[in-house]
Each structure stands twice: as structure tokens, then as C-alpha cells.
């Protein structure tokens, strides 16, 4: 703990300059939107990207010569933006008519929007584990937020020893490990959630060069106005949020930290000028994983100005405001990319880590659109999420894909992007799909499992078919998602051969986990 740091030195964003300097470039958004969305510069003719130069060929710096590819490889930067518990129906570009998300909607027009993309799991830790390790939840190290045996005991709801959590082990290979080895500067901003209660299993211990955010073992660091946070390995206190003050919202702080990183990567700020910055890299490709808290509960919005006259219940206003605030902040990050000349060579992903939460207690907004179920369930509402991928000159603007894909695919895709191997992981390389070389993914299963109070629940999708069972001793339900995306019509009895096949595939996809034993 360091109580002596002032707000400037405690906040790495101070090195990168204030984000407010970008304000005032909104278009197509009314004045009330401006309050919540802050800033986003988008030319009507050129999009948000800088027109001009094509992709830059980047030779990685900071790696040993033996690690370098023989030939220079185009290595685009990767900006991966993750929302927390954002539902399939929460964005304008996914059909929402109430919540204002002009920036993300605009992103969807600049790249490929997926209608059938899935998270790794229906809650945070296992889903992020799948994202980081490229393994599905039948192989992943972490298969639930809490584990049944093993792991480490820790606090929940103020009660020490109430729960156990597992964490990524040193032998687990993350996409950050891979990208670091490929010459990337890797940075996580905000939420990791793979450390369990092990203080030696943070992002800096699992492949990230830089980390600005919160860790599980410190409850004071979790909420939207945390008074404690990490700057790499240094735990520091946020002056503006001490003693219950609400001075520095997590969404703003995370945004500022992300922009500060981008500025350092662009060479705008040196190590000497930035007290706690680790990077001095210029021209080095980067992987920036910006994992916002929004719109996870508690629905502690910075303000509800955008929705105060909407007639929505207050809870719904707060939920919508959290999303619109994040949307505006993403606009700032994109603006920074643009201003720093990084936009042309950056692949951007926007995604959510799982479906909308019943716990949000939102009354009127349809968080998961037409989908059945919620966060924590293997019905579509728990696992199908918004995903948008943009990559100038590579991913055709304004495209929509209905191919089933899920989080483990990002590992294979990013590995392929940089010439690395994804051997031993469960995803497929989506680059041919993203770049228009094909419009299909070769037939494979997409698989999930999770652990209710006892036993195991499983779901598997192949093509248009999805089978799900809530316990291993219960019958499979079967849905045709093409004709029945809301999973209302169980057709298992009409297609016993398909059920048998999916049962076989699901059975072989599961491996035993020491922390989530089946049949205990
Ligand atoms: Ca989540």
C-alpha cells in the first residue's frame, strides 16, 4: 500500500495526458448524448480511421533474434475490448432501441458483426479463462467463478473463507504469453479475474508486460469507485475515491489507462516522463486487453443524465447509463488510436464476457434480446454475446457473419495472425472468415460445460443444432437455432440420431477437473 502517492503519480494516465482534450467531435449524436458519451470523432466520409497509408510492416523489437520470424511479418496491433455482463440485446447494432451506443454501432459498420458468437462460459472467470488459454470449458483450468475443491479459500460478501477459487497455473499458456513471445507489448487494463485468491497469479505472472486494474483478493478494488488499485505490481490508493467519495469512475480510469498505454506505444511519452510506465517501446506491436467492468452490478453509473427524461425506471436508467458511458469512453480510445496514427494497423475486437444478468434487476430493457436465459445459464442468453471485429483493409466494413464461433477461437486467430502455433488449443483460426476468404467455418462443435450445485451441465452446438442438458442424468434438449433462436421448441424426440451424435461429442469433450469433480 502506498498512501503517499498523489493523484498524478498514482494514475498512470497522468503520463499520457487527459482524455478530455479529445472532447467535442461528436457527430450524429444530440447534445444530451454528448454528456454521457464524452467524445468521438468520426468523419462522415472517412469513418473514424485515418485515411492514407496501408498496413505497416512491423519488425518486432525487444525480442531475442532467435525468436524472430525469418521474414518480417505483418503484425497488427490488437485492441481487445471486453464488456462485463453485457447482454446480446444491449446494443443498438444488435437491435436495442433504447440504450444509446453510437460508438459501438459505428464500429459494427466499420467491420464484421457476428450474430452467433459465444463467450467461453456463462460467467466471468471461466469465460475469461477460455479467452486467455484457447481451451473450451471442458478442458479449461477454471470452470466456474468458485471451485468445489482445491483452489484457495477466500472472502466473499465480507465473510472470510466463504468460497474457494481456482487460478491460472504457471504452466497454463495464455494468448498474452504467445503474443509477448511474438514481440508484442502486452497490457491488461482493469479486470483479470483469473488470479483466484493467489496473489502470485496476476496478469504480470501470466504473460502481460503491463497491468492497471484490480485483483480478486482485494474486494476494495472491485467496484465502480474503488479506493485501491494496481499499477503493475504496486498497490495504490485512489485519492479521489477515499472515504466513500465518488471522484474517479472505473470506466473513466480504465479508459485513461488504456489511452496512456497507447500514447506510450506510439512513442509519445518516454519512460523517463512517466513515473510508473514500464514501456518505452516505439513501433513495437501491442496487445491491449481493455476489460471494462460495465455493465456488471452494482449499477453504479457516473450519472443518469442521458436517461433522466426517458421514463425508464431508475435501475434501468443506471444500467443504460453504464453502457452509454462505456460506449463514449470506447470512442475516446478509438480517437486516441486515430490521433496517434495507430488505427490503420490495429485489429479491434469488441465483445462481452457472458450474457446479460438477471441480477441486474432491470425491468424494461430486454438485455438478451430474443434469447432464452441469463448469465449463469447455458441457454443462449447466458452465452451468446455481441462480438464485432474491425481491421482496416482486411475485414470488409459492414459485414455480418452468422457462423458459430466462440472465445477459444481468438487464441487460434491471434496466434495465426502473428505466425505462432495454437497447437493443443480448442479454437479455430477465424482469419479466413474475417478476411473474406471464406464465409464458413469448417464444421466443428462448440462446447460448454458448467457446474451447478452438484453434477455437471453441458451444451454443444454444431451447425444449427444445439443440445443442452441441465444435469448429466437428465435428457438432452435439442433446438434448431436457425428456426428457433429462443430455444422454445425442444425437438429431441424428433431427431434421436442427432441427439446421440451430440451426446457422444459432448461426452468426449469433457475432461475431469481436480477443482470441479463430477459426481461428488
Ligand atoms: Ca461477467
Q: How would you describe what is shown here?
A:
The chain is α/β, with parallel strands linked by helices and 520 residues long. The chain has two domains: 9-44 and 75-446, Alkaline Phosphatase, subunit A; 447-509, 2-Layer Sandwich (Arylsulfatase, C-terminal domain). The chain has helices at 7-10, 13-16, 31-37, 102-110, 124-133, 175-181, 250-265, 314-339, 380-383, 408-417, 431-434, 496-509; strands spanning 77-83, 112-114, 117-118, 152-156, 159-165, 185-191, 210-214, 228-231, 234-237, 286-291, 346-352, 387-390, 399-401, 405-406, 446-450, 457-462, 465-469, 477-480. A ten-stranded mixed β-sheet has the order 9-8-7-6-10-1-11-12-2-13, with helices on both faces. Strands 15-16-17-18 form a four-stranded antiparallel β-sheet, with helices on one face. Strand 17 and strand 18 (477-480) form a beta hairpin. Helix 5 (124-133) runs parallel beside helix 10 (408-417) and helix 7 packs parallel to helix 8 (314-339). The longest helix is centred in the middle third of the chain and has 26 residues, at 314-339. The chain binds calcium ion. Calcium ion is lined by residues 84-85, 123-124, 296, 353-354.
Amino acid at each position: 500500500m502506498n498512501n503517499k502517492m498523489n493523484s498524478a503519480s498514482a494514475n498512470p494516465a497522468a503520463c499520457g495526458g487527459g482524455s478530455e482534450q479529445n472532447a467535442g467531435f461528436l457527430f450524429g449524436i444530440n447534445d444530451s448524448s454528448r454528456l454521457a458519451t464524452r467524445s468521438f470523432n468520426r468523419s462522415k466520409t472517412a469513418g473514424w480511421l485515418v485515411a492514407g497509408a496501408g498496413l505497416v510492416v512491423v519488425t518486432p523489437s525487444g525480442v531475442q533474434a532467435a525468436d524472430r520470424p525469418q521474414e518480417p511479418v505483418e503484425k497488427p496491433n490488437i485492441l481487445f475490448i471486453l464488456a462485463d455482463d453485457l447482454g446480446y440485446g444491449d446494443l443498438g447494432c444488435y437491435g436495442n432501441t433504447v440504450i444509446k451506443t453510437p460508438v459501438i454501432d459505428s464500429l459494427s459498420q466499420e467491420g464484421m458483426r457476428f450474430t452467433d458468437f459465444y463467450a467461453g462460459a456463462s460467467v466471468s472467470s471461466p469465460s475469461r479463462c477460455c479467452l486467455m488459454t484457447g481451451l473450451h470449458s471442458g478442458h479449461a483450468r477454471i470452470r466456474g467463478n468458485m471451485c468445489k475443491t482445491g483452489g484457495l479459500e477466500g472472502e466473499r460478501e465480507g465473510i472470510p473463507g466463504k468460497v474457494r477459487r481456482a487460478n491460472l497455473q504457471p504452466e497454463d499458456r495464455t494468448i498474452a504469453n504467445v503474443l509477448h513471445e511474438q514481440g508484442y507489448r502486452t497490457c491488461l487494463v482493469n479486470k483479470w479475474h483469473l488470479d483466484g485468491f493467489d496473489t502470485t497469479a496476476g496478469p504480470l505472472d501470466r504473460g502481460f508486460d503491463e497491468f492497471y486494474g484490480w485483483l480478486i483478493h482485494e474486494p476494495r478494488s472491485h467496484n465502480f469507485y474503488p479506493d485501491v488499485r494496481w499499477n503493475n505490481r504496486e498497490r495504490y490508493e485512489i485519492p479521489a475515491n477515499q472515504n466513500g467519495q465518488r471522484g474517479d469512475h472505473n470506466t473513466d480510469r480504465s479508459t485513461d489507462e488504456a489511452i496512456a498505454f497507447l500514447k506510450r506505444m506510439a512513442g509519445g511519452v518516454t519512460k523517463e516522463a512517466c513515473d510508473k510506465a514500464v514501456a518505452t517501446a516505439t513501433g513495437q506491436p501491442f496487445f491491449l486487453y481493455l476489460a471494462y467492468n460495465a455493465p456488471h452490478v452494482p449499477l453504479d453509473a457516473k450519472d443518469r443524465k442521458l436517461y433522466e427524461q426517458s421514463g425508464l425506471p431508475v435501475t434501468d436508467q443506471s444500467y443504460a447509463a453504464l453502457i452509454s458511458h462505456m460506449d463514449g469512453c470506447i470512442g475516446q480510445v478509438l480517437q486516441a488510436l486515430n490521433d496517434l496514427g495507430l488505427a490503420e494497423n490495429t485489429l479491434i475486437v469488441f465483445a462481452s464476457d457472458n450474457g446479460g444478468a438477471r441480477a441486474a434487476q432491470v425491468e424494461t430493457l430486454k438485455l438478451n434480446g430474443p434469447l432464452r436465459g441469463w448469465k449463469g445459464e447455458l441457454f443462449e442468453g447466458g452465452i451468446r454475446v455481441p462480438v464485432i471485429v474491425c481491421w482496416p483493409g482486411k475485414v470488409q466494413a459492414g459485414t455480418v457473419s452468422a457462423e458459430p464461433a466462440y472465445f477459444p477461437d481468438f487464441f487460434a486467430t491471434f496466434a495465426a495472425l502473428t505466425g505462432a502455433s495454437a497447437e493443443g488449443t480448442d479454437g479455430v483460426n477465424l482469419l479466413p472468415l474475417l478476411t473474406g476468404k471464406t464465409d464458413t467455418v469448417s464444421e466443428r462443435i462448440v462446447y460448454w460445460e458448467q457446474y451447478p450445485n452438484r453434477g455437471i451441465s453441458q451444451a454443444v452446438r454444431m451447425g444449427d443444432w444445439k443440445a443442452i442438458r441441465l444435469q448429466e442424468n437428465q435428457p438432452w434438449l435439442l433446438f434448431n437455432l436457425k428456426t428457433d433462436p429462443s430455444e422454445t421448441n425442444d425437438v429431441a424426440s424428433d431427431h434421436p440420431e442427432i441427439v446421440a451424435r451430440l451426446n457422444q461429442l459432448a461426452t468426449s469433450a469433457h475432461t475431469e477437473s481436480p477443482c470441479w469433480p463430477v459426481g461428488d
